[in-house]
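Extended Data, panel c. Modelled sequence:
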Amino acid sequence: MCIRDRSARAQDLLSDLEKAGAFDKPTQEVEYVDGDVPEGAGGGADTTGKPVSRDADAGSAQTASISVDQVREGVARQRAADTAATVRPAAAPPERPAKPEPADGAGQAPRPSQGPGVRSGAGAVTSKAGSPKKGAAAQSQRTSRSKRRAAQRIAQRTVARFASDPAPTTQPVPIVKVLEGTPYQAPVQAKAKSESEARMILDLAVDIGAMVLRAGAGSSDVEVSVIAACTSMGLPNAEVDLTATALTVHYADPEGKQMTVVRVVREVSPHFAKVSSLHRLVSDMVAGKVDYTQARSRLDAIRAQRRPFPQWLVTLAWGVLVACFVTLIGGRLPSAVLGFGLAIFIDWVGRVIGKTGLPAFFLVMAQSAIATLTAMFAHHVGFISSPQYSVAAGIVLLLPTLGLVSAVQDALSNFPLTAAGRIVETGMGFGGIVSGIACAVVIGNTLELKPMEITVQSSGLSVLTTIIAVIAAFLVGACGAIGFYCARRLVIPAALIGLVGFLVYVGASLVGIENILALLIASTIVGLFCRPVASRLGSPAIVLIVPAIFPLLQGLSIFASVYRMIPVPGEDVPLSVGLGALFAAITANSAIAAGAVLGDFLSRPMSRYAKSRRTAKARAKAEEKLEAMRKDAGIKPSTA
């Protein structure tokens, strides 16, 4: 139990014992002879001469009062010790030995102690010697007093045990434990700060968390960033409360004053280069390399950090991604060219319409409808023979990849509220894609455009197709990193990890593994490589996971399932078939996100091992340099 709980329980027990009469003064029943009642005895006999009782003797009263005072004094001492935050076990009050009750040989009642209300000498209380009635009364009195003293001793020992509990106190789990297994573990903790300094540190930590959240990081990355910043600056007792759009940090200083800082993030703008910069800032704070002033200056510089690539290059990268994805899933050159143009056009449409404040659902719906209608018209005029590849590649561009990965990561990292919000957002994105495709297919059927063939014909394996697929997978990963504004040093690693994941997926499919399981295995390998590589490059894992899973995304299955749900003249496909195919397509994309998060968790021990190895190598290299300097200076090594 806590320190203050022990003193409170001791006080409650003391009050209960006093109410129950455990500390009341014992009474003594004495039978008086008619007419021999002393003055001031506090009792007497009625007119019939029947015996009456009076209060106990002064000695017994003094014994009881001393015991109560001792208990009260022990409780007061314990309270004082609790106020000073020092636990000092209070020794149990010494037990007062019971005095032998003098009695004459005839079994006479014991002589009362001389107190303020009892006279001695000729006026003392006398009783009839040898009377069996008086002997029974004396025996009853002794038994009653013995029981009362025993109750007092038990009460004293119980209260003393509560007031000086030797058991170790149960403290809440330190919030720094949350950092175990993360890149910010074992931070350099500063001393507690004053109220004004604590307010400034809270503002700094919340600004860091809000910027990380707005730049596209997951909830777990936001939480550990805020906790690491607070702990490294001297606020180890801060509590973080995170929702999908708001970040709240609570702190109570040593004097009990409460402070709360809130930041609201109303929209997410992916900027992975800024996420990497914030990660390095927090890492330096945890290592004790920067103080508050330096951290605030660097944070202001990160806030004004420009995107690493211009907008035209990002738009071009999306076009190359779609064209390479068409090639990756079996499309020919005309479909790839059409996909390149579609990607650039729908990206421009999204930026123009997005400025009007149109909800994201309708924006995605319009983009997917444009992509589908354009492909159907190109197929109708004979420009391409397989429009499904162009539509599938356009769908991959519109998929809420970041939201899907973040939602799965939050759900598996004990962030149910943020996970629910992200799942709703991701579901609305999928709904917009499906609605746009359905509207475009209905419009195409109304205009009597040529129906599309959604069956994918396998081109088999050859050296040329394998080389083209490898190059396409590499470019898809690299363009995904550019599209999410990753730092330049992360583009090639993201492309290589995406290529490895695609090769694993193809190999698993060739050996006969079912599609969803093959995707899960391949994405797990991707997540397994992303964390150690990102840690080595000074970035969180998510900045590599999102672009690296682009070669695995299932856009063609989504288009095929929606196309089956739309009635086409001459075909009679049940609606349940299309719904089942759509569910399978969404499950496949969710399996990709789940596998990436699983690989990220599995790679944490590897990251800690790699970090310990790097630390050991750095220490060994420093010792070698020190030894070389000693040799140059002619200093002999110590033999101690």
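Residues 25-66, 85-95, 97-130, 167-173 have pLDDT under 50 and may be disordered. This feature is highlighted in the accompanying rendering.
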